[in-house]
Amino acid sequence: MKIVRTLLHDVLLLRPRIPSEGGRELTIDRSELERVGIVQPFVQDNHSRSTRNVLRGLHYQIEHAQGKLVRVIRGEIFDVVVDLRLGSPTFGQSAALHLLAGEGLLLWIPPGYAHGFQVLSAEADFLYSVTDYRFPEHERILLWSDPALAIPWPVRDVEPILSPKDQQGTPFAATVAMLEAKRP
């Protein structure tokens, strides 16, 4: 496994070894992950399927923060992370990239980041392994369209398709106030 690049503090874009002709593909190997600094165990694998212009996020958990190892296996998405770790050198910064099926890339998002994506292809299948379970009572949503985040979403000429939950995102300033109030 090779680190292709670092997007923000601890966020990694990874390229696993891919066979040249046929054969199987080894994408997740514990020793390879540990070699690049990913030591958290994964407790659950999830599969998300969405259609063009669906926008999910920006999701995070205030307790039981989840690290995520994500991959697109069909289609194309615009993937976004926002650092919500108080004291991090990249706190409040966002990073975005296109993930395309067939490239074989994995994105490591450590615990403490908000995460979201917009589907750019007709359909997309998105796989992600998480380091902690989903706790609905701890789920929060950072407002995807908050100008303070300056995320260059590719939704300029159409309205994104948002779930009712994703329509209720909290602005960044209010999120910071809540995180600071919860700090021990």
Automatic annotation (TrEMBL):
Pfam name, any one: dTDP_sugar_isom
Pathway: Carbohydrate biosynthesis; dTDP-L-rhamnose biosynthesis
EC number from the UniProt entry: 5.1.3.13
Function according to Swiss-Prot or TrEMBL: Catalyzes the epimerization of the C3' and C5'positions of dTDP-6-deoxy-D-xylo-4-hexulose, forming dTDP-6-deoxy-L-lyxo-4-hexulose.
NCBIfam families in the record: rmlC (TIGR01221)
Subunit and interaction comment: Homodimer.
Family the entry assigns: Belongs to the dTDP-4-dehydrorhamnose 3,5-epimerase family.
Descriptive protein name: dTDP-4-dehydrorhamnose 3,5-epimerase
Gene: rmlC_2
